[in-house]
Amino acid sequence: MALALAGHAIEIGCSMTRPKEHADPAIRRRGLMLVLSSPSGAGKTSIARRLLELEPGLEMSVSVTTRTKRPSEVEGVDYRFIDRATFETMVARGELLEHAQVYDHAYGTPRAAVREALAAGRDVLFDIDWQGAQQLREVAREDMVAVFILPPSTAELERRLRRRAQDPEAVVQKRLAQVAADVTHWAEYDYVLINYDLERSVAQARAILGAERLRRQRQPGLTDFVSQFRTAR
After folding, report:
1. CA-to-CA distance for 45 and 114, rounded, in angstroms?
2. How far apart are CA 2 and CA 4, in angstroms?
3. CA 115, CA 138: separation in Å to the nearest integer?
4. Which of 27, 28, 52, 97 is deepest in the core (most CB within 10 A)?
5. CA triplet 98, 104, 108: central angle to 5 degrees?
6. pLDDT in tens, 54-94
7. In the chain, which ranges are continuous DSSP H helix?
8. 102 vs 39, 132, 202, CA distance in Å?
9. Distance, CA of 65 to CA of 84 (rounded, Å)
10. Which of 159, 211, 146 is nearest to 185 (CA)?
11. Per-residue pLDDT for 178 more than 80?
12. Is the pLDDT of residue 8 over 50?
């Protein structure tokens, strides 16, 4: 299975079983921010939902947005739907880690809940666009792992947008027109996945998450854990 990392392809296996624990309970760790971005319709939301089902210790960052709720969405689960005035107040008070204007609507990530989760060793999943990812990198570079998701082709992207049947034709056309600008940001991400198949992409994302959880700098408890061997007799 091909996986792109900083412009290079590597091969990883698809066969993954669900771990009993997301980290060694004997070692204190700091959580990470797993950021998924893609052109609209490329599949990042479906991948995010599967990751949440399969990965213990991973929770969703619930963004606030000024857009209208879609029929399939749940308040407080998919987004917190707020008006423009409330959004602007949150920005002014510094309550958002990042915020962006996307397709005529505003989106943002509440700060407090994310910081609390990371400090407690829980990982936080973000379903945001490239603008939000850039802002997060500025304020939380060491905590962030960014994955950009591409569709197999423009034709497949259009098919997925139309199959979703949640947006009027004018919105679909606007999203398709935006793709050319969105994909230019792929090189800003740590990893790039081409979403040919949902389960395959989920397996790739889980491999990334598993490896990033084991980075030495995300396990501050390693110092104490290793010290037992230095004093052992």
Report:
1. 19
2. 7
3. 15
4. 97
5. 15
6. 998 999 999 899 999 988 889 988 899 999 999 999 999 99
7. 44-54, 84-92, 111-119, 130-140, 154-164, 169-182, 198-213, 222-230
8. 11, 10, 25
9. 9
10. 146
11. no
12. no
Residue 185 in tokens: 């940001």
Mean pLDDT of the chain: 84
Amino acid making up residue 163: R
pLDDT at 29 over 60: yes
Domains and CATH numbers, the chain: 28-222 (3.40.50.300)
Please give the single-letter amino acid code of residue 90: M
State the pLDDT confidence band at 230, using cuts at 50, 70 and 90.
confident
Task: Decide which of 150 and 7 is more confident.
Answer: 150
Q: Which tokens hold the place of 3?
A: 């996986």
Unique residue bearing structure tokens 């005529």: 104
> Residue 11 has which token pair?
């091969």
